[in-house]
Design a protein that fits this description.
This protein is mainly beta. The protein has 1 helix and 10 strands, in the order E-E-E-E-E-E-E-E-E-E-H. The radius of gyration is 15 Å and the shape is globular.
């Protein structure tokens, strides 16, 4: 994993620190299986798993950044777009396979949109749920990143 040091510097993280992780795909004629292990397939200890589902057409999610938390976002079913923003650069990644995960560094604004019908957005997070870890105001985010 590149740029490990930057995970402790959320003010400095950029969209270019984020990468797609290719998980193993164990093929079987009766169906496929993808295993994910702490610090092996994902570069942190997973403390929380949550998933978004039953997303109405045209809705978007996210619109926040995290101060400390890092995460891996997976399209467990269907597809959607994740737009990352570091205050200077934006990058949009389409996720559409359950064996790809987008590793999102701390300190990045994210919007998730264009959910396909029946999409399931699975998130592996490095922290328990702490409301204080969220930055939900974009201007606060820009101040946090010290970019003007
Ligand atoms: P929110 O983070 O706003 O969802 P998203 O960014 O995906 O659009 O969370 C929606 C609500 O769910 C909010 O009231 C907080 C709550 N929530 C929890 O209680 N625990 C969790 O682990 C998460 C992710 C959210």
């Amino acid at each position: 994993m590149k740029n490990l040091k930057k995970q402790g510097m959320p003010h400095k993280s950029t969209v270019f620190d984020c990468s797609i992780i290719h998980f193993p795909k164990i093929h079987n004629r009766a169906g496929n299986l993808t295993p994910i292990q702490n610090n092996i397939e994902v570069p942190f200890d997973v403390r929380r798993v949550y998933y978004l589902y039953d997303i109405p057409g045209g809705e978007s999610r996210g619109a926040h950044a995290h101060r400390k938390l890092q995460q891996v976002i997976i399209a467990a079913s269907g597809s959607f777009d994740v737009t990352l923003d570091d205050g200077r650069n934006k990058k949009t990644v389409q996720l559409n396979r359950p064996y790809f995960g987008l590793h999102v560094f701390p300190g990045l604004w994210r919007d998730i949109s264009n959910f396909s019908s029946g999409a399931v957005c699975l998130v592996l997070a490095s922290e328990f749920y702490y409301a204080e870890d969220y930055i939900r105001d974009y201007n606060d985010f820009i101040t946090f990143k010290a970019v003007k």
